[in-house]
Amino acid sequence: MSSWRFDEPLVTLSTPDTNERSKALWEAEDLGGLTEDNNPLPVPVVWLVALTVLTAFAITFPLWGQRPTAELYEPLIAVMENPAVVSAADDKEAMNQILALTANNPRANPALLARHPVNMDDLRMIAPQVEALETKGVDLRDYTVVGPNVVVANFEGNYRKDGTRIRQQPWWDIGYTIDIFYLTAFFLGVFITVKRLPPVSWQPRHGNH
């Protein structure tokens, strides 16, 4: 006969006879003088655990911390020698001209530029590095702009046919898949273990102690 029941999973997953055996064992075992009650986990603790997990996923989500790539600034660098930019009265006006000239360029993503703004001095520092990468014919998305430097992005994706490695930030990291699997297994395991115990409506007497 099965010792499982699923009609009230939030109360207990054990049949009445299984619960009775568990109660008898619970009362008989003194645990070296220690006693253990059958209290439910406090609801605030449950919500705190859920909030911790959701917050950890949210603040580390790849798109949340997306880094600026060399490709993002390449359209801006490409128009730095445009007559409208060169003839600008100052750097602020020159920057406004650059943004106006690249407004319709899909690679100059306005949202990312707003999140990672640059000025003319920034562009002057990274321009030679970006142009050197263009000369090599590499994928600018594989390079991240960190301050005044353009460096290889800290990502390791699949290999291309030419042997180079894709180093672009994914929208979904495989680590999240692994985390979801293990967290689900952990919480499900804890739930099943706890709900195999007698219902919390029953409390052990501990020999009337």
Write the layout of secondary structure elements.
Blueprint (H helix, E strand, L loop, with lengths): L15 H13 L14 H17 L10 H9 L4 H4 L4 H11 L8 H6 L4 H17 L6 E4 L2 E4 L21 H22 L14
Antiparallel strand pairs: 1-2
Helix pairs in contact: 3-7
Descriptive account of the structure:
The protein has a two-stranded antiparallel ribbon with strand order 1-2. The longest helix is centred in the C-terminal third of the chain and has 22 residues, at 174-195. It is elongated and about 90 Å long. It is 47% helix and 4% strand. Helix 3 (70-78) crosses helix 7. The model has no long low-confidence stretch (mean pLDDT 89). The chain has helices at 16-28, 43-59, 70-78, 83-86, 91-101, 110-115, 120-136, 174-195; strands at residues 143-146, 149-152. The chain is built from 8 helices and 2 strands, in the order αααααααββα. The chain has 209 residues and is mostly helical. The chain folds into 2 domains: 1-66 and 175-209, no CATH class; 70-152, no CATH class.
Low-confidence residue ranges = none
Number of domains: 2
Write down the oligomeric state. single chain
Average pLDDT, to the nearest integer?
Answer: 89
Order of strands, widest sheet: 1-2
Order of helices and strands: HHHHHHHEEH
Give the fraction of residues assigned to helices.
40-55%
Broad shape? elongated
- Tally the beta strands: 2
